[in-house]
Amino acid sequence: MMDGNDITSETSRRGFISQGWTRISQIYQGLLDKWTPHTKSRWAVSILLLATFVLRIFLKQGWYIVTYALGIYHLNLFIAFLTPKIDPAMDFDGDDENGPALPTRSTEEFRPFIRRLPEFKFWLSVTKSTIVGFFCTFIDAFNIPVFWPILVMYFITLFCITMKRQIKHMIKYRYLPFTHSKPKYRTVDSSVTVN
């Protein structure tokens, strides 16, 4: 039989764990918030992580299945990054109930390109998956022997087919997911005299 002290100690232990988890998630979110404006630095770190992963695969000569799965996942993320949030191919009735859509005629109002996967979430997913893939290379159960040139050829074929389909979609619906140069506005230094 439990007495009152056991119930309160169990409740306080759960409260302590909950508070600890909340604090860790707040610190994690704070770090993400600090990294948000530093796009080039974020991607440099991700590319460095990816290069470290590739170097480990090259030196250990294994874990090709992990590398292939990571490549397919990154390809899916990239396609989601290039795709508009509201696909014009799925907009049959022309309603604007789903929010802004891509302009299909030059007479329509300009609407900015809204991605299905925003850049920050793309970076975060690439970074997390690369870290998970790197740690998977320390587990021998994932080192399945395969003939890796077949995986490379299959990945290249899949990449070419997928990108061809995506480029055809971009041409058909006339959108470009990248902005080359945003207009920058200067501050006008005008001295207005009041009479």
Can you offer a commentary on this structure?
The structure is a single chain. By secondary structure, this protein is an all-alpha fold. The protein is 60% helix and 0% strand. The longest helix has 32 residues, at 4-35. The chain crosses the membrane at residues 43-59, 65-83, 146-163. It is found in: Membrane.
The ordered H/E elements are HHHHH
The protein's oligomeric status is single chain
Number of strands: 0
Low-confidence runs of at least 5 consecutive residues: none
Helix percentage? 55-70%
- Helical stretch tally: 5
End-to-end separation: 89 Å
Largest sheet: none
Give the integer mean of the pLDDT values: 83
Radius of gyration: 25 Å
Strand content: under 5%
**SSE class:** mainly alpha
Give the overall silhouette: extended
Structural descriptors:
5 helices; 195 residues; mainly alpha
List the helices and strands and how they pair.
Blueprint: H1 4-35, H2 39-60, H3 64-82, H4 119-136, H5 148-173
Helix pairs in contact: 2-4, 3-4, 3-5
InterPro entries: Rer1
Membrane topology: Multi-pass membrane protein
GO cellular component, one term: endoplasmic reticulum
Question: Summary?
Answer:
Involved in the retrieval of endoplasmic reticulum membrane proteins from the early Golgi compartment. This protein has 5 helices and no strands.
